[in-house]
Amino acid sequence: MSPPCVLCFLSFLLCIFPVISSVLHLPLTHFNTNSRDPYQTLNSLVSSSLKRARHLKNPRTTTNTTTPLFSHSYGGYSISLSFGTPPQTLSFIMDTGSDIVWFPCTHRYVCKNCSFSSSSKNKIPSFIPKLSSTSRVVGCRNPQCSWIHHTNTTQCDECENNSNPQNCTQVCPPYFIFYGSGTTGGVALSETLNLGDRTVANFLVGCSVFSSRQPAGIAGFGRGLPSLPAQLKLGKFSYCLISRRFDDSPSSSALILDSNSDFDKKTVGLTYTPFLKNPIVHGKEAFQVYYYIGLRKITVGGRRVKVPYKYLSPGNDGDGGTIVDSGSTFTFMAREIFEPVAGEFVKQVKNYSRARDVEVLTGLRPCFHVKVGEKPVEFPELKLHLKGGAEMALPMGNYFMLVGDGAACFTVVTDSGVGGGEGEVGHSGPAVVLGSFQMQNYYVEYDLTNERLGLKQQLCI
Fold it and tell me: How far apart are CA 426 and CA 284, in angstroms?
């Protein structure tokens, strides 16, 4: 859809709108490519993880309760939310790397390249504003307009040229959002969010009328003002990501939204690492949305991997450091970190030979030939040592994946992958993006009140 057509359609769209417990539990499920070819599936996930890393490291800017959590084979985890009066329920990808909540909107919603699995062959469900008595288009003078555009400057160009600006009826300009592998655009709505027996009026949500490569709406859980946690004034939220073997199944775990969080009170069984101060970089305001944590060192098989410190700590220019991103599938490591980590595996793995043909097919490396069934497949332990004493000793299934009939591949990606063909991700921005694949079967708590991340390994289902 060309920009002029988009603006015309948005103008038409504007004409069709009519001018409690503190803890909530929501199901969380994992949102798969349509291919049955495991090599093609992995290559697709590698590609999407690299695109996502490129976006997070080089974000583009424009002027412009408990619930079930489900897993999906295209790499994301989804929740269901209900908006409007009467409520309309839609699926949203939970994303801690962005801060805007939006849904597919109107009967005319258009999505390009949005068929990701057999479950998505039917038309993507859309929110219909004219069926809700509480839908309102956000005005340009509404503070929420600046939230969705990530700017403190006024969006009311027409109002400022009006002889009586107080009576100006200009609406908030359309938004355009860029993600790693897709985009979306639409208009900002003020709507009612229904969470169990709780209703939240005047919730800012994006009404997207067109998208590319977006299988569902997105619920931004990042640190910005328009995010779901910020608008709900949550003290903390937590989730447990179920194993990828439950992709596209009815199985789910729970996303917990907690309005209360006592100062310095810790959840039993969790170890904590503090959130780091976000870098403030002109032109890359998205860095302020991320959840940065301190990665002190990485060990493979008990041996410390030598990594330059500047890549482990975020600098004032926004380069370096580690973020937690539920929207990424495979963890990304800058080449200066990845190469010594991968090299340590190659050095320590003696029982298996390299499977370079599989590396080319999947885009993952290193891969090894293994004999499944004769005896347990074993690889050196990968452990992430975090500030505050927290450690993540990853289960082997979180960093090596069996591929085909006799290979296992390291599920961490970097730029210039052997088979991904994605080119340079770039040196700017976070050096490590901790993806959801590595967080399978971890209970993760975002304690917003106390500015820390809690972790505990456990079975999520």
Answer: 14
User: φ and ψ at 429, to 5 degrees?
Assistant: 80, -170
What b-and-e string marks burial along 332-367, b requiring 16 or more CB atoms within 10 Å of the CB? bbbbebbebbbebbeeebeebeebeebbbbbbbbbb
**To the nearest 10°, the Cα dihedral for 116, 117, 118, 120?**
-50
> Which candidate, 261, 353, 340, places its Cα nearest to that of 297?
340
Q: How far are the Cα atoms of 32, 47, 313, 360 from residue 52, in angstroms, in the given order?
A: 16, 9, 21, 21
Tokens of 258: 């907690």
Q: Are 22 and 259 spatial neighbours (Cβ–Cβ below 8 Å)?
A: yes
Nearest to 366 by CA among 417, 329, 405, 298: 417
Q: Is the dihedral of CA 384, 247, 53, 206 positive or negative?
A: negative
CA atoms of 142 and 150, how far apart (whole Å): 13
H helices of 58-168, in order, are 143-149, 157-160
d(CA 62, CA 413): 28
Residues of the chain under the 70 pLDDT cut: 1-22, 29-37, 60-65, 72-75, 115-122, 154-155, 161-166, 245-249, 261, 416-427
Contacts of residue 122, Cβ cutoff 8 Å, sequence gap at least 6: none
Q: Judge whether 293 and 283 are in contact, CB under 8 Å.
A: no
CA distances (Å), 412 to each of 61, 76, 156, 186, 393, in order?
27, 16, 45, 34, 15
Give the model confidence (pLDDT) of 354-401 as tens digits.
999 999 999 999 999 998 777 889 999 999 999 999 999 999 999 999
Strands (E) in 181-301, as ranges, are 183-195, 198-212, 217-220, 236-240, 253-258, 271-274, 291-293, 295-300
Question: Coil, helix or strand for 192?
Answer: strand
Structure tokens at 378: 């074993």
Helices and strands, counts by H and E, the chain: 8, 28
445-457 tens-digit pLDDT: 999 999 999 999 9
**What is the token pair recorded at 449?**
């009140």
**DSSP state, residue 87:** T
How many whole angstroms separate alpha carbon 36 and alpha carbon 416?
A: 26
In terms of C-beta distances under 8 Å and separation of at least 24 residues, what long-range contacts does 451-454 make, across chains too? 451/274, 451/275, 452/272, 452/273, 452/274, 452/275, 452/388, 453/272, 453/273, 453/274, 453/275, 453/291, 453/293, 453/324, 453/390, 454/238, 454/266, 454/267, 454/270, 454/271, 454/272
